[in-house]
């Protein structure tokens, strides 16, 4: 799964025993050479879908931008300023190296976005970060994003279809989540990262409770399951 330039098993173990912020500070120089980086195929699918439905946007915000995988897409979609927000200084440093011009960077917890970002953006996106938030934290997360958007602004992110328990991947993810719960129960510094705590039904309800209108569109780039439902959807949550 990892290239020879990626993190070693020891480095991953150290990260796993650190806090989320410190763990990503440590991993940041090699993060883009791991499978955890959002694939370009996903970024391209989201960009194409947003461009086809919405055209262009004014200002853009990448929530939990990490090393900046989504910032290039955001810059192409947005006419005005683009901002990347992340809690990890190390990840932001890598993002700044990849995008030295045209992007502002803000170090902040996504659960407490700075008031200065309020009513400023026409598009907010996020990729691969929602496993770092417990279900009870989603209302605060979504409320903060809504406050950052201008009226009519859009919060967009991909979400995958649930995997059947007969799938090998389902058991892998269930095993990872179980191990993470044990780790957090016995280790002082919590590292929140779960793969099965972000179901569409609960997410939709929390977005609506935060004041969004919500629709989803299939990301046809990834095909459909045997029952005809898409493997991936793009959630479009709009601030009225």
UniProtKB/TrEMBL annotation:
GO biological process, one term: methylation
Start and end residues of each Methyltransferase domain: 61-153
Organism: Streptomyces goshikiensis
Transmembrane spans: none
Alphabetical list of SUPFAM superfamilies matching this protein: S-adenosyl-L-methionine-dependent methyltransferases (SSF53335)
Coiled coil feature spans: none
InterPro entries, per the entry: Methyltransf_25, SAM-dependent_MTases_sf
Pfam families hit by this protein: Methyltransf_25
UniProt name for this protein: Class I SAM-dependent methyltransferase
Recorded GO MF terms: methyltransferase activity
Domain of life the protein comes from: Bacteria
Keyword Transcription carried by entry: no
Keywords: Methyltransferase, S-adenosyl-L-methionine, Transferase
